[in-house]
Recover the amino acids of this structure.
């Protein structure tokens, strides 16, 4: 008698079913094992890497991708993991887009959270004060502005800058009585704590050095003047010019007069040492015998008469190629009229000043 066919089919199908169960069991165990490994790796990456601690200066450039920052931290031994897992953990913190540019003091062996706290926390605000020095200010005016803006007394500031300790070779030589003309005019920001007259004076002088180093001061030999004398000329241009297009022409007139031994006749130099400092020059003032009276004394005044800005320094270094010997202020816009001869100049004076 033959066996029941249904029983035979059931018997043949039992092996695949058992095999499926085994495969499922193995897959389950694999997933559990992988999950356990992943969890262990996750915990390891969150913690500090092993090894002794050392200081690390870590720099983040502007617009560096967060994943590159994470790689750098890992390469330096700051955090335990980089790569895919490290980047994943970084994204999970929600701080990937909060990392700041700059240099940071870290150590090896930090947790990810500790490292990110340093990289994302802004430094405490440091109280600062602003000082604005306009072009053309002389030392006494700078001292008054220092007092108004920074609270350092003008008297103390002037005593400091006139101490004789300020030099800036080759521009301001040793033995100069003061740094008149060499405290560069611009806007400055100072940390309020520990601010002093010396800190301010040194910063303004160093700024002049930075500006001058970027200019072609090697042309002074060709122009026949020293760097210090060039600044004197630039200070006169600063006081005389009202519009930028006149600066090089005024420089040309100054060099032309120096070359032929003609008195400069610049009243701004006399106003610097005006015996009656009211902003006006009387007939007595014009006859006042001082080295700053360039009507009666040839050559340059002994010092700069103001702090020249970059444009006046550039004009002094690159005077216009002109034969003009005279100029007069003319017009509401502050431009000058230039002349070759005294007769032409007198006509310009009549037309411009009435």
């Amino acid at each position: 008698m033959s066996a029941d066919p249904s029983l035979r089919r059931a018997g043949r199908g039992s092996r695949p079913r058992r095999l499926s169960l085994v495969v499922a069991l193995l897959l389950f165990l694999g997933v559990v094992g992988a999950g356990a490994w992943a969890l262990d790796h996750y915990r390891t990456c969150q913690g500090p890497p092993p090894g002794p601690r050392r200081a690390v200066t870590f720099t983040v450039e502007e617009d560096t991708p967060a994943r590159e920052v994470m790689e750098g931290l890992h390469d330096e031994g700051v955090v335990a993991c980089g790569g895919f897992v490290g980047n994943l953990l970084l994204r999970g913190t929600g701080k990937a887009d909060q990392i700041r540019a700059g240099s940071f003091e870290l150590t090896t062996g930090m947790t990810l959270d500790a490292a990110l706290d340093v990289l994302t926390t802004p430094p405490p605000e440091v109280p600062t004060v602003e000082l604005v020095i306009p072009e053309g200010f002389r030392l006494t005016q700078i001292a008054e502005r220092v007092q108004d803006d920074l609270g350092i007394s003008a008297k103390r500031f002037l005593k400091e800058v006139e101490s004789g300790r300020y030099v800036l070779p080759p521009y301001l030589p040793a033995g100069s009585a003061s740094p008149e003309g060499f405290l560069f005019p611009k806007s400055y920001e100072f940390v309020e704590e520990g601010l002093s007259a010396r800190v301010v004076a040194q910063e303004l002088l160093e700024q002049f050095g930075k500006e001058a180093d970027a200019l072609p001061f090697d042309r002074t030999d060709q122009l026949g003047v020293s760097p210090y004398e060039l600044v004197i000329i630039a200070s006169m241009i600063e006081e005389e010019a009202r519009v930028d297009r006149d600066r090089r022409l005024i420089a040309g007139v100054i060099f032309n007069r120096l070359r032929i031994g003609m008195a400069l006749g610049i009243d701004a130099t006399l106003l610097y040492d005006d015996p009656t400092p009211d902003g006006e020059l009387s007939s007595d003032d014009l006859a006042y015998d001082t080295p700053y009276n360039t009507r009666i004394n040839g050559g340059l005044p002994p010092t700069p008469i103001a702090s020249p800005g970059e444009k006046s320094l550039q004009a002094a270094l690159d005077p216009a190629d002109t034969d003009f010997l005279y100029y007069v202020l003319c017009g509401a816009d502050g431009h000058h009229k230039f002349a070759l001869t005294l007769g032409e100049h007198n006509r310009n004076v009549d037309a411009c000043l009435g």
